[in-house]
Amino acid sequence: MPGLLLRTLRGENTAERPVWLMRQAGRYLPEYRALRAKKGGFMALVYDSDAAAEITLQPIRRFGFDGAILFSDILIVPYAMGQDLEFLAGEGPHLSPRLVDTALSALHAVPERLTPIYQTVRQVRSQLPGDKTLLGFAGSPWTIATYMVNGEGSRDQFETRAMAYRDPAAFQAIIDAIVAVTVDYLGGQILAGAEAVQLFDSWAGSLAPAEFERWVIAPNARIVSALHQRFPDVPVIGFPKGAGEKLAGYARETGVDALGIDETIDPLWAARTLPAALPVQGNLDPLLLLAGGAELERQTLRVLDAFADRPHVFNLGHGIGQTTPVENVSHLLSLVRGWRG
């Protein structure tokens, strides 16, 4: 029988809510920090399938979450497309050459850079308990393009937004290339053992409505359609962070099987506004989890109660912070496990 998380993503409204947390495999865990100190930098961990599988499984062993999210990074896709990728201490990821300066055609694809990721998925699947769901993921095309064009993250995505306005044909070619690689990449994860996949659009909130339609909804719809054709039983979760009132259109037009919502969205508004019976995922503020206390309890129950009438995966509105106390995570899990709709 499929696990609780997979059943929920397929549309079953269960009395008990499945729970997993974005970035649950990572820096807030002492066992992760110990392994990183032993193995080296972030990319060394991602490309060591034994280490990456161990990190993926660490929060399952400690907390018993319903889902294990692959330990990797969204920028593996541009890395496979031929850009160089570095993670610099205190600065975050850097891609080169920047596509604001260099034509897409100058890149030479290196598809073998995806192979170790598939091996990690296979290793996790072989060790994961049968009632736990293995989640694969990729970045959505708009967010990936912002890094490919600018070479690094930015607050307002100025370079990428300007390029999309200035030369939409060139920018469309970048988006199309990302879509093609992403479909194959997620397909490879599914063939290796992923039972559901999530599309992360971390910078979706920076776009005006018409641009959101073109650069967020349209390419994600193409990815979802292609995956549904190849793998009709594998749910696809869309997470367009910052989409706000555009969430309902995203849900209808992309065809995602479940919708992740961030902490800026009122769960009562989401419950009223989003398509009926659509599974939703979210949306506790990660800072509440860090702070703990009575407000964490109150807001956790508010989220659970708001989505009582539809399939709901409890999660944060974004990634768990690296200074989050482990005991707060344990307490959150007890609150979610103790709730019944």
Classification by helices and strands = alpha/beta
Distance between the termini: 22 Å
Q: How many domain regions? A: 1
CATH class: Alpha Beta
Strand order of the largest sheet: 1-4-5-6-7-8-9
Q: Extract low-pLDDT stretches.
A: none
Please indicate the percent range of residues in DSSP E strands (runs of 2 or more): 5-15%
**Any guess at the CATH architecture?**
Alpha-Beta Barrel
Please state the CA-atom Rg, rounded to the nearest Å.
19 Å
Sketch the major β-sheet.
7 strands, parallel
Helical content stands at 40-55%
**What is the average of the pLDDT values?**
96
Number of strands: 9
Shape: globular
User: What is the H/E string?
Assistant: HHHHEHEEHEHHHEHEHEHEHHEH
CATH topology: TIM Barrel
- Number of helical segments with 4 or more residues: 15
Structure description:
By secondary structure, the chain is of the alpha/beta class. The chain has a single domain (4-338), classed as TIM Barrel (Alpha-Beta Barrel), CATH 3.20.20. It has 15 helices and nine strands. The chain has helices spanning 4-9, 30-39, 42-46, 49-63, 76-81, 115-127, 141-150, 158-166, 168-192, 209-230, 247-254, 267-273, 286-291, 294-306, 326-338, and strands at residues 67-69, 84-88, 92-96, 133-139, 196-201, 236-240, 258-260, 280-284, 312-316. The strands form two sheets. A seven-stranded parallel β-sheet has the order 1-4-5-6-7-8-9. β5 (196-201), α10 and β6 (236-240) form a beta-alpha-beta unit. The longest helix has 25 residues, at 168-192.
Task: Please give a quick description of this structure.
With 341 residues, this protein is an alpha/beta fold. The chain has helices at 4-9, 30-39, 42-46, 49-63, 76-81, 115-127, 141-150, 158-166, 168-192, 209-230, 247-254, 267-273, 286-291, 294-306, 326-338, and strands spanning 67-69, 84-88, 92-96, 133-139, 196-201, 236-240, 258-260, 280-284, 312-316.
